[in-house]
Design goal:
The structure is a homodimer. Chain A has 17 helices and 17 strands. The first copy, chain A, is α+β, with helices and mostly antiparallel strands. Chain A is globular. The A-B interface holds A 20, 23-25, 27-29, 229, 232-235, 242-243, 246-247, 249-251, 253-254, 257-258, 263, 266-267, 270-271, 274, 370-371, 373-374, 379-381, 404-408 and B 20, 23-25, 27-29, 229, 232-235, 242-243, 246-247, 249-251, 253-254, 257-258, 263, 266-267, 270-271, 274, 370-371, 373-374, 379-381, 384, 404-408.
């Protein structure tokens, strides 16, 4: 490059010194690059050698995976009852968040959610009966993720629950998610009892049919576009969904009015959605699931297609390693706890909602949502920093999801397990926190770092697959 | 201060050097202070001497004015027809934006809006007839601001138009504003014709009664709270109102469903609001008007209570100088022009919407709305810079309206005309741009600086009032 060319190139700052100087530079474009070298995470030298030797092949596989992820077009196409539509759903099966787990190893909130689910299904009259049945061996458990489904927190899906159906229009595949119950005493945080059950029944009998008819009237609702708009309105669509919920509400309300015979039901449904700023989470999650599932089974790809937690283990899946799970113990979040609660009350990280981070949203897009620090703790500058750090472990930038404060830079998308391991930097996840005991509910929200374990195992497995 | 104390105080950076270094510091708290000294604007040494001598008295008056402005609580309390509620409204009177002006000196869009208004009122059958009537001397014109009203762009209010009624609950005073027509060919941008008139009639016959009944059902809607939320969602509530519109929609939709007898009308109203992201502008403006009007007539106060433009002149009023107007020619905005238009097509700055800046919103709060640069031009960093600059000419920070990206710092509120003049820094206004010819409509949007002239005149007048 001639001096002439150099002077006409955009300025880039490479900072080898105090990181805070780079931070201040970064707040203004052009972005600065921090050479933040850390020793790689511990992996076998053999794996490293294989992945290095196969780099070109991995690159080709990744380009294919990334193109699929970037071009996915998730749309809400309808609603139905879980047993009618979720592949492999059956009367004795209960789905849960995270990687596979047995009743014996399940955490309090997962058990609480299952117990609430069995009461809701009419399989048990009391929570005690439900607990006995759940532990009896009669009920089968499987991860949502293995049934094209995602669920926030405990992620419990029982056969009678209504689910929203999201189609990735570009690739045809479907994903499913239950309807968001709101905050307070709710099943997904492991709460149970009269209040929880009454709400679930209302959701089945009123919310579900009203929404189903409205979505049939509107036709497919473009969630990719809605998420993109929400990022321009201060959401990261994991822990902050006020804008997404507003946009969905605006889109669906006229159709609800048109299709709902009962004025009282229409008002109740609109009031319910208006009262729950997390409603859109159960749309952003399956939107990401539908987008990422299309990129599964691309041999050689080091791109992560699932990160999830069942409250005991943190699980990871790669595009290049099929249905294999890589797990390690989930960590207890350093969170902003609600009054009266502390870290001692908190369950380890739980939920499929990290699918948003896997899709380049949530903690990865948190620079778009500075107001979230009120909910999860920290300063606005932390939100910028988290997003900048995630560019270091991702292989692409979204073409559609942008961060206005970074001059509309695409969000960091497509976690490359090689970068996670070699740069020794784990994904940040912007999450809610459940009480560790069944039956209590949410106790806080915060930012949690994924454990390195699952990524290191996935790294080794990818190497083995390319030997 | 001992060294011990100094070390335990929050760090403040005073930068006398290159401003960009301060900018980068500012993006992270604690904020840096730029000593950006400019020679004062030209004002008489006599005025300067008087205001300096009366500084303590001005300070007391300002504290009173600021307390009123900061504690205002604007709420939407109802709707009615202009002639029934706007004080002094009469059949031959048409209100317009900005300071007083005669037909002869009016700009194209103001004339176009008046012509459209006369056709809408049935006072003229054609635009040609309307123009002749408007120029005949038979019609009286007065500023919206003198009738407790504000109007965006041309700001035309005729007797039959529906208006929203905003009450400042703390002080009891009322403010009025018409309903927002949306974008495209609309009266407020000086457009006329069949399309404009048909929409205005629909607004009078359907939108107005439906909204009136719904607001009667909800009871007063807290606009202060809604604006505060909108700032957390990327609006500055002048040129970006997508979040405000969404929040208003969420609040009003259930009441529309409950109160509207005709399903078709309810759907049409919801669809209209959903299709117009500027709907909330006509609520944020009168919210600011109701807030600021309560601080009028406080002798000695140098706080600005109105900035507005009629497309020819830019006008300013102070809390301390009663109903006197201080004016100078309005400037043509350096804007982002729509395809096919340029600055040569643009009318000078127009509209009462600068009441948002006067109230600490709009251009003053633009750091909350980085996505707006897509609409008005520039980079996200410019949005931060504009807001920082406005702290230099304001006397307070909002207790309610916050900027998440600045760690929830209150927006710069209460323009002190002394700071404008002595620091030689004028307010920035984030505005839409009308075509200079009647009948065309919007051609762009951008950031415009207020002219210094009205502030210099106000400064002198304040001095005279304290001689």
């Amino acid at each position: 490059m001639s001096l002439q060319e150099l002077l006409h190139s955009p300025l880039r700052v490479v900072n080898l010194g105090i990181e805070s100087f780079k931070d201040t530079c970064e707040a203004f474009s052009p972005p600065a690059i921090q050479v933040d070298w850390r020793p790689p995470a511990e992996v076998s030298p053999e794996s490293e050698a294989i992945l290095s030797k196969r780099a070109a092949r991995i690159e080709r596989a990744n380009q294919k995976a990334l193109e699929i992820i970037l071009s996915g077009t998730p749309k809400l196409v309808g609603l139905d009852i879980a047993r009618n539509v979720i592949p492999g759903m059956r009367e004795n099966l209960i789905l849960h968040s995270g990687p596979p787990i047995t009743w014996e190893r399940m955490s309090g909130p997962t058990r609480g959610g299952i117990m609430a689910g069995l009461v809701y299904e009419g399989r048990a009259a009391t929570i005690e009966e439900a607990e006995a049945l759940a532990a009896s061996g009669e009920i089968e458990y499987a991860p949502c993720h293995e049934h094209a489904t995602v669920g926030p927190m405990a992620g419990i899906v029982t056969p009678s629950m209504p689910v929203m159906i999201i189609q990735n229009e570009t690739y045809g595949n479907l994903a499913y998610c239950t309807l968001n119950e709101g905050l307070g005493k709710v099943l997904r945080y492991g709460a149970f009892g009269e209040e929880v059950n009454t709400r679930l029944k209302w959701m089945e009998n009123t919310l579900y049919p009203v929404l189903k008819a409205a979505v049939a009237r509107t036709g497919p609702i473009d969630l990719k576009n809605m998420i993109a708009q929400a990022l321009h309105m201060g959401d990261e669509v994991h822990n902050r969904n006020r804008a997404g919920t507003s946009l969905f509400y605006r889109a669906i309300a006229p159709a609800i009015v048109e299709t709902c015979e009962s004025k009282a039901d229409a008002v109740a449904v609109l009031t319910f959605i208006n009262g729950n700023d997390h409603f859109f989470l159960n749309l952003s999650m399956p939107a990401c699931k539908a987008t990422l599932d299309a990129a599964r089974n691309i041999k050689g790809s080091s791109i992560v297609v699932a990160m999830c937690r069942n409250g005991t283990d943190f699980g990871v899946q790669l595009a290049g390693t099929g249905n294999e799970w890589f797990t390690a113990p989930a960590e207890v979040p350093d969170a902003l706890y609600f009054a009266g609660f502390s870290k001692a009350d908190a369950n380890p990280d739980i939920g499929d909602s990290a699918i948003t981070e896997t899709g380049g949203l949530g903690g990865f897009a948190i620079a778009a949502a500075p107001a979230i620090v009120q909910f999860v703790g920290g300063h606005a500058a932390d939100a910028l920093r988290y997003t900048y750090e995630m560019y270091e472990i991702t292989a692409a930038e979204s073409r559609m999801y942008q961060i206005p404060a970074l001059d509309f830079r695409g969000t960091p998308t497509g976690i490359d397990v090689r970068k996670v391991v070699e740069r020794n930097r784990v994904p940040v996840i912007d999450t809610g926190v459940a009480h560790k005991k069944a039956g209590v509910g949410q106790v806080g929200a915060g930012i949690v770092s994924a454990p390195m374990g699952p990524f290191a195992k996935a790294y080794d497995a990818l190497a083995r697959s390319l030997q």
